[in-house]
Every structure is written in structure tokens, then in C-alpha cells.
Specification:
globular; alpha/beta; disordered N terminus; Alkaline Phosphatase, subunit A; 17% strand; four-stranded antiparallel β-sheet; Arylsulfatase, C-terminal domain; 2 domains; ten-stranded mixed β-sheet; 12 helices
């Protein structure tokens, strides 16, 4: 496989026939990117969970497209978030794990792209691509808030907060960070355009976020807008309010909190869609949803969180760590009831939106884009992914260095730890990764290993400066 065949270079205009939409579709549709945090493939109703109540996400999937094989670009949060905004492998822009780097200003984000097209841009929720408070940027992090990456306004945290009462450490919290009842991260983890926020912080965190999203939409309904909404749910500390816990009273405490906070998030997604309807904006707004990686390690091992039938969980290179629930809705553009099992990715948001708004890079900003156009998938114009998928998670001080590549139906992975064992799977016949073919298929193993090394080296050149102007 030639190296260039896996790259989609946005250096030429997208022809209008690639994105033919109905006459009623606006030239500049609104775009909303929704993302949950640590929500497993199996932790949503539309992927078959019969116990978890997610009626609004289920409605999105039914009224638009359900992506049955949608991949996060890494098995953990920060790298995936960067891929969403740039359309590039995380190893290109150097965010290889959490709290190890900030988003580089040399990267071009969806927000910057859309600002150039006259959009108003807003970010809401968990950023995790750099510190949002300059005073907090310490030895393991960098000050790199949303305002440096194309967002006109933001209401953001640097990283995780409790999913209920986000400024207070939960009463039963025994893990990293803070003692029960103490202020969480000083009691003001949210920053709105550089100013700490202390009002309207009680209760469900997803509601706290949506209380800022909806006014942004209302204020910009007369112009095109881009809203990135990255919920904390259901990342630990996983806490649900009593009313949400009661819905799952037949389950144990851990599942009551997990399911309850997911249902609370789902409720806010329904609230958002209802407000779009009330404002007459639904048909002019494309809404995408996905999770940032597979379900949390500890909750999956306990049988609480679910990757569905897939092997693995967060921090692993197996399908369960990478496959996430995903759907999108855009009335009169995406046909209701659309489903696809073509392998799609968080890499694909950038080129999809670029095509929708007819964006192309200027000559000085040319760079490889690793995603593909989801609208072509939705319209049935492609029957398989035209480019490889490359995943990585690296934190060398902890001996963590996992990578994986999917080319066609073949997947090669190197386990993140403990021994970095290399495995080979044929996902066409073995989607649940039960049969390692590394010994049986030495030629395929060599070919995939060579390809993995090529992409890794290419990403190294990107992050060493090949894609940036000086």
C-alpha cells in the first residue's frame, strides 16, 4: 500500500456533486459536535442496551444515521479530542496521552476553518487539550485554551469533574485528587472566557453545560454557528442525582450512578434538540454525537460499563477501547433510518464539515488530513474506508506504548502494556478479536508491521514541524 493512498489532502476544492443536498439546505448550516466521555459502545440504547434509558440519543440514531463501526482515534480522551478538531492522527500533533501536551496553535481546527467562513464558534464542557487557566499550567501541562484555537467563546474545564455537583468532591470518593466534601479543583473548575465561574454550578453537570450552550445558540440564531459540546458524563467521578438513580433502583450503586448520569446527559441532548425545533433551526443544523473512547477500565472489569460484544476497554488497543457509540441527525439531508458498518472515525469530522462549507486549505497551510468525508458514506458513495486507521497511546515513563492499524479488514495491534505483544486479527471473520493470527499469517504480519512503521515515521515528521509554517 502506497503511503499517499492513506492520506486525504484538502488542497483542492470539494466539487459540489460530492455534497449535493436538498434545495432547502442552507449554504452555511449550523454544526454541533456532541461528545460523551468514557461511554462504551454498549452503553446506549441504540446499540442494544435494554436496561439503560437513552431515548433522545436513540431518536437521533433513528431519525438520522447510526454508525455501527465508529472509532475513536485513541483509547483515551485527549488524543481523540484533538483528532475531532483537526482530522489528523494524534501522533501528528503530539498529544499522545492525557496531561502530556497542549493543542499546538499550528494546527488548524474546525473552529478556525468555520470562523473563516463567517461562523460564530463556541466550546462547552471538558477541553482536555491544554490548561484553561494559565495559572494552573504546571510541569505536566500547557496553557492552551479553546480561545487559542478558533473558539469565540468558551465555558470549559481543563479535565474531569464530578458528573453531579461538579465543584464538590463526592462523599464516597476514594480515588485520585481530593478528599470527600472538599472543593473539586479549588471549587471553580469551569472558566468562561478566562473568568472562573461560581454561579449555577449545582446539580447535574450535563445540565450545567447545556445552560451555557442554549444561550449561545439563541444569541447566534440569525447567523451560522458551530458549537462543540463535550460532556463529562460518564467519566469518573461518576455520580448521578437521586432522581436519576431511582430510575435504576433494581441495580447496584455503581450502575445506578453510571446509568443515571448517562440518562441525565441524554435528557440534555433532548433539551437541545427541542430548543432547535422551537427556534426553527433543526433543518439548518447538523448534529453529530460520539464518545471519546471505550468504557472505563474499572467499571468494565466489574461488569458495570459495556463495550458490547467487543474485547477490551479504555486504554487498550482492542476494539472495545476504540469503538464508540455514534450517530448524526440533519433533517432533509441525512435520510432517517440510515445505518452503516463502514469503519468511520473521529478523524472524519474535519473533512466532512470542510466539504459541507466548501473549505480548502491555502497553499501555505497544506497538510495531510487522515479522515474521510462522512457524507459520502451516508449517501452510499463508498463501500469501504479509503484510508488506513492508525491509533496510538504513549506514555513512556510508565512503559506505555500501544499502537494499532486497521487496513481493510486486517488489524495489527501492539498492546500498550505490560509486554507490548503484537497481535493480528481479521476483523471480517473475527470482529471480537478472539483469534490472534500473528503466527499463522507471517506475510500479513510483516506487511502490516511495515505499514505501521511507515505511518508512525510520517507522524513523527509531522509533529517535528513538517506541516507547520515558521
Amino acid at each position: 500500500m502506497a503511503m499517499k493512498s492513506t492520506l486525504i489532502l484538502l488542497t483542492l476544492a470539494f466539487v459540489s456533486t460530492c455534497f449535493a443536498v436538498s434545495a432547502a439546505t442552507p449554504a452555511k448550516p449550523n454544526v454541533i459536535l456532541l461528545m460523551s466521555d468514557d461511554q462504551g459502545w454498549g452503553d446506549v440504547g441504540f446499540n442494544g442496551n435494554k436496561n439503560l434509558q437513552t431515548p433522545h440519543l436513540d431518536a437521533m440514531a433513528a431519525e438520522g444515521v447510526r454508525f455501527d463501526r465508529f472509532y475513536a482515534s485513541a483509547p483515551l480522551c485527549s488524543p481523540t479530542r484533538g483528532s475531532c478538531l483537526t482530522g489528523r492522527y494524534p501522533f501528528r500533533f503530539g498529544v499522545l496521552a492525557a496531561h502530556t501536551a497542549g493543542m499546538r496553535v499550528g494546527e488548524i481546527t474546525i473552529a478556525e476553518m468555520l470562523k473563516d467562513k463567517g461562523y460564530r464558534t463556541g466550546f462547552f464542557g471538558k477541553w482536555h487539550l491544554g490548561w484553561v487557566k494559565e495559572s494552573d499550567a504546571g510541569s505536566r501541562g500547557f496553557y492552551s485554551p479553546p480561545s487559542q484555537h478558533g473558539f469565540d467563546t468558551h465555558f470549559a474545564t481543563t479535565s474531569a469533574v464530578p458528573t453531579w455537583n461538579p465543584t464538590v468532591t463526592p462523599a464516597d470518593w476514594t480515588s485520585w485528587g481530593y478528599k470527600p466534601g472538599q472543593p473539586w479543583k479549588g471549587g471553580a473548575p469551569y472558566v468562561q472566557d478566562g473568568v472562573e465561574v461560581t454561579h449555577n454550578m449545582a446539580g447535574d453537570d450535563s445540565r450545567v453545560i447545556m445552560d451555557r450552550v442554549i444561550p449561545f445558540i439563541e444569541a447566534n440564531q440569525a447567523r451560522p454557528f458551530f458549537a462543540t459540546v463535550w460532556f463529562h458524563a460518564p467519566h469518573e467521578p461518576v455520580v448521578a442525582g437521586e432522581a436519576y438513580r431511582k430510575r435504576y433502583s433494581k441495580h447496584g450503586n455503581a450502575r445506578q450512578n453510571l446509568y443515571g448520569c448517562i440518562t441525565a446527559m441524554d435528557e440534555q441532548i433532548g433539551r437541545l434538540r427541542a430548543r432547535l425545533d422551537e427556534l426553527g433551526l433543526s433543518e439548518s443544523t447538523a448534529v453529530f454525537f460520539c464518545s471519546d473512547n471505550g468504557p472505563a477500565d474499572n467499571l468494565t472489569k466489574k461488569g458495570v460499563a459495556s463495550a458490547g460484544p467487543f474485547k477490551g476497554y479504555k486504554h487498550t488497543m482492542y476494539e472495545g477501547g476504540l469503538l464508540v457509540p455514534a450517530c448524526a441527525v440533519w433533517p432533509n439531508v441525512i435520510p432517517p433510518g440510515t445505518t452503516t458498518n463502514i469503519r468511520c472515525s473521529t478523524l472524519d469530522f474535519f473533512p466532512t464539515i470542510a466539504g459541507i462549507v466548501d473549505f480548502e486549505f491555502g497553499s501555505k497551510d497544506k497538510r495531510p488530513i487522515d479522515g474521510m468525508d462522512l457524507m459520502k458514506v451516508i449517501r452510499g458513495k463508498v463501500n469501504q474506508r479509503p484510508s488506513d486507521l492508525f491509533f496510538g497511546y504513549r506514555r513512556l515513563h510508565g512503559d506505555i506504548d500501544g499502537q494499532a492499524i486497521i487496513a481493510g479488514d486486517w488489524k495489527l495491534l501492539r498492546e500498550a502494556k505490560p509486554d507490548g505483544r503484537v497481535r493480528l486479527y481479521d476483523l471480517a471473520t473475527d470482529p471480537y478479536e478472539q483469534h490472534d493470527l500473528a503466527i499463522e499469517k507471517p506475510d500479513q504480519l510483516r506487511q502490516m508491521s511495515k505499514r505501521l512503521q511507515e505511518i508512525d515515521a510520517e507522524c513523527q515528521r509531522s509533529r517535528d514541524g513538517a506541516d507547520y509554517r515558521y
